């Protein structure tokens, strides 16, 4: 009886030969699982001194981006460099940068806060720091989101809160969430009782709060008192204001009553669709720093009241 052909052995042998050719770089070993493969090492060249300098410069430019934007926007606004093409700064920012007015205010307020932080981290307030991060121990914000929670604090508290957040972040730039938590802790420890009373007349202080845009310097009447804020009434509606954004006029009860009556009268006229110039006049009455109207103001307001009633 003839033996069957040894095809399986021949195939196995061929396969073995192929493995020997293909894996010529594998060190022979009794256990294939422990085979050693030689891999050529790739050497990564070190940065030259110029490259290291360029990298540091570019990193600082990235870190300064929002800060520089806020400083530039503030100068554009203060010098009214938009006036040749736009009537208002708000329209200019929307057309030129596609920025909402709130975002612009956040950037400007953020740049002010960074200046406060820089002043606190310098060894001397007279020391000029030309570039952010020139001091190795000076960790500064790299995003507007990181400084936004600090707007609720006074400048000195902003410095302390930022340094505490940097420490909790292990000496690195902290996240906006971490900064917010630190700010909340400080506010809880420095809680100030709300001493305002319903009917009290106060002045609204913006203090870099974009939500109070257009209300800076306006008088308001407290209508509801909370732990950290008050609901106040102005000539064109109600809004909630934090305690640090209010300043009492310290009017007598009779004077507060006079202001409330003036507020009612202005609100009634303001709610009607009158000319823009008339609305501007009414808004100017909303910024009076006295509890009465002059004779001329009284005559104009009475004329407007008779006009809408007729």
UniProtKB/TrEMBL annotation:
Region (Disordered): 1-31
Residue ranges with Polar residues bias: 10-31
Protein name according to UniProt: Site-specific DNA-cytosine methylase
Biological classification of the source: Bacteria, Bacillati, Cyanobacteriota, Cyanophyceae, Nostocales
């Amino acid at each position: 009886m003839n033996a069957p052909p040894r095809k399986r052995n021949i195939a196995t042998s061929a396969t073995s030969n192929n493995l020997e050719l293909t894996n010529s770089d594998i060190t022979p070993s009794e256990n294939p699982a422990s085979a050693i493969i030689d891999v050529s090492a790739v050497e990564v060249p070190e940065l030259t001194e110029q490259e290291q300098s360029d990298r540091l410069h570019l990193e600082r430019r990235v870190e300064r981006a929002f800060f520089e934007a806020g400083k530039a926007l503030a100068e554009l606004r203060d010098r009214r460099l938009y006036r040749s093409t736009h009537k208002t700064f708000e329209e200019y920012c929307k057309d030129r940068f596609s920025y909402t007015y709130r975002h612009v205010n956040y950037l400007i307020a953020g740049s002010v806060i960074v200046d406060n932080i820089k002043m606190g981290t310098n060894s001397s307030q007279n020391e000029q720091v030309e570039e952010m991060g020139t001091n190795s121990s000076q960790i500064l914000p790299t995003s507007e989101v990181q400084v936004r929670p600090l707007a609720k604090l006074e400048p000195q508290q902003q410095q302390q809160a930022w340094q505490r957040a940097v420490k909790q972040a292990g000496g690195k730039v902290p996240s906006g969430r971490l900064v917010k938590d630190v700010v909340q802790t400080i506010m809880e420890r420095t809680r100030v009782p709300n001493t305002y009373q319903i009917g009290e007349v106060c002045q609204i202080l913006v203090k870099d709060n974009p939500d109070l845009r257009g209300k800076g310097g306006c008088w308001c009447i407290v209508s509801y008192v909370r732990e950290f804020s008050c609901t106040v009434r102005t000539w064109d509606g109600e809004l909630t204001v934090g305690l640090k954004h209010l300043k009492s006029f310290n009017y007598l009860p009779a004077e507060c009553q006079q202001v409330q009556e003036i507020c009612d009268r202005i609100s009634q006229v303001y709610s009607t669709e009158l000319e823009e110039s008339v609305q501007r006049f009414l808004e100017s009455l909303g910024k009076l720093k006295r509890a009465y109207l002059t004779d001329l103001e009284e005559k104009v307001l009475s004329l407007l009241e008779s006009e809408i009633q007729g």
